[in-house]
Fold:
Amino acid sequence: MGYNWNWGIFLQPTATGDDTYLGWMFYGFKMTIALSLSAWLIALAVGAVVGVLRTVPNKWLSGIATAYVEIFRNIPLLVQLFLWYFVMPELLPESVGNAFKQTNPIMQQFLASMVCLALFTSARVAEQVRSGINSLPPGQKNAGLAMGFTLPQTYRYVMLPMAVRLIVPPLTSEFLNIFKNSAVCSTIGLLELAAEGRQLVDYTAQPYESFIAVTLAYLLINVVVMFGMRWVEEHVRVPGYLGGK
Amino acid sequence: MISMNKVSKHYGSFQVLADCTTQVHKGEVIVVCGPSGSGKSTLIKCVNGLEPFQSGEIIVNGVSVGDPKTNLSKLRSTVGMVFQNFELFPHMSIIDNLGIAQVKVLGRTQDQAREKGFKLLDRVGLRAQAEKYPGQLSGGQQQRVAIARALAMDPICMLFDEPTSALDPEMVNEVLDVMTELAQEGMTMMCVTHEMGFAKRVASRVIFMDQGRIVEDDSKDAFFDHARSERAQQFLAKILHH
Structure:
């Protein structure tokens, strides 16, 4: 194979002279982490609320929550991203739309990406939360109510603490997914990790080094997430219950 | 204390409860028995509004359970309930299981709640297990904790929904002993149970249900010596042989 390996490429100044190629990679790495983490926090909050609403007795509330989940998990992520980035600013009231278009283009890309990833993931988190609540023994809810707790208190003190513990493993997958899914945001021009990888190929003609570096960076993120979530799992384990001590 | 008047409930065309009428006076111990599917658990869950009913009326301590204006949470905080599967909160230590509702519902301080909790654990003989978690206790111990948890709310009456049915036979007595003691102290109790020995020992009255109806509602002596209905006689013949 007549390929010239050149790992030194990362330390060379870029063609535009503003940084090294490693610096570009690092910028993308930071962007991916900032984007995914902020989207994840929103997804957890929204997903928890929607997931709980899917299980409440009120038909209107659970119906709205079901519609939310079905919309966000049945439209392809890429299409959702285009909708948020290209279509949504036109649908907003003109003043808001214009304000959005006048912000810094990187900020526009970041916001659209964050909202898109957050809501897409929140629908999936909501499903995990719902399944966690539904997998509790039905008597738990009655026990909470019988003690004099209101329904919200029963969720807060009795059902959610156990449901959340049960869904830590599937939530770990969603947390990993959000980092991987964030690569889609390179399609609207956001310079995150995958986009920087492609940019490096264009500038240096060293695709192997570039994408190996990108792969390792994603791997690093996910290994950290995996170990972090394993730590969480072990620390919320209930004694005498489901593999607890 | 508890008065039921023509309570009926149905799922679609299936009648779960039909015109159930009875009274429970202060200090009485009522044992509710009957074949499975006869509606006894449903009846007892109607008393604190865990099961809705379509017609009739239940008055607990002067408050109508079926009235939409009734604050059910408040009513339930005064009625203790013990379940077949214990239903302790698995993520809390035993002492916190006893304390949480005292603090969040009754507004007691953490210290008051713990003190009350320890006193009740002493009473059911489980003081030493206070810092353990429900999953680390045997079934009988868990059910005694569940009784203590209900008592921690200073209930005006107690409902038991087959409290010994999920227990290993050797653990049944430790739970029945606690219940017997409670009955002898004058607690108003309504117990769904098949433990006829318990019924003979402490019941004031026995209610026998079949197909959603209260078929017999009589003093325990009358019930055990000469049950009037054929259905109750058959039932007794079957379970008293063991």
